[in-house]
């Protein structure tokens, strides 16, 4: 893509009200735009990042046997009344009446909707298990929508739901999803801690959160450096678990940290299915409720979380897995013979390498400043200085190398 054509241009100053790194940098670099508090537009660069995040999630979730669907965002009051959550979730749910006086809600989650689908299509144990997921917008009336795109009133989320005939089968799938989540976050470059937390408006059971350690995080977690134990501060406080020793391995290795929640998994048991009458007949003809679980990852939140943990004074530092482009090609005007930027751009594209080519007629300083702000992993420069080679520089390093075009392609594809 030509940088002269990309929308919008970068900004020199962050928004006046911005406090978090992701708010300041994603807006300045042209990845997102704020419509109002808690409501964001994903601009072309931001959408490219979220698409790459979703592709990784989709690939790993498909491996669990789940199938992708798309469920409605507008829900009737009646379905939420079946579980009592119309009243229980009233503070966080956007509720309204239409001109006929009928009451509706905008989706803040889809447990009831999924179970309504399931109960229409199952009769026997032979119809189970079922696992469906979708990427969709969620609406939540956050009282303190802040921290940029980390905490919004509408945001994109992947939510997966599954039902099973037995408790044993449910926990097997729950563990399969847990492992899929760990692969997802590892592929994206995150080091996550799994912590136990309260279920809130979702369930009375404890749940598991996937947390990324970050100074700008809104959660406080405790975790053990010697084993896999971890817990959210609220759970630790309520259950008085906090001691100088790990509750699991007894090691004095408990650490406290601010963190960003990037995913969660919920074991619901049969609570929802009993209230919504989602039953099946087992092989003996006995009527039983299905075992139910829910599993979420915030796609747009992940983009913000990455910027919180990977930036410097100059801008964002993407990795190749979720960067909007593989390479940022900088063209500096040259009189001597050497590589032409157009030739490099075309050759890289021919080899399936995504390139952002800064072809603008502006100073070298402005180009390098924008390059660092946007944060694409590899910078290539074509100039008099490079001659018949290309200047290669990694975003996180100050070291510069000179390679032939052939070598550049080899390194990028290697």
Automatic annotation (TrEMBL):
GO terms for cellular component: cytosol. PROSITE patterns: AA_TRNA_LIGASE_II. Residues 33-324 form the Aminoacyl-transfer RNA synthetases class-II family profile domain. The keyword Nucleotide-binding applies. One of its GO terms (biological process) is prolyl-tRNA aminoacylation. It is an enzyme of class 6 (ligase). It catalyses: tRNA(Pro) + L-proline + ATP = L-prolyl-tRNA(Pro) + AMP + diphosphate. Keywords: Aminoacyl-tRNA synthetase, ATP-binding, Ligase, Nucleotide-binding, Protein biosynthesis. GO terms for molecular function: ATP binding; proline-tRNA ligase activity. Pfam families: HGTP_anticodon, tRNA-synt_2b. It comes from the Bacteria. Its EC number is 6.1.1.15. PANTHER family: MITOCHONDRIAL RIBOSOME PROTEIN L39/PROLYL-TRNA LIGASE FAMILY MEMBER (PTHR42753), PROLINE--TRNA LIGASE (PTHR42753:SF2). This is Proline--tRNA ligase.
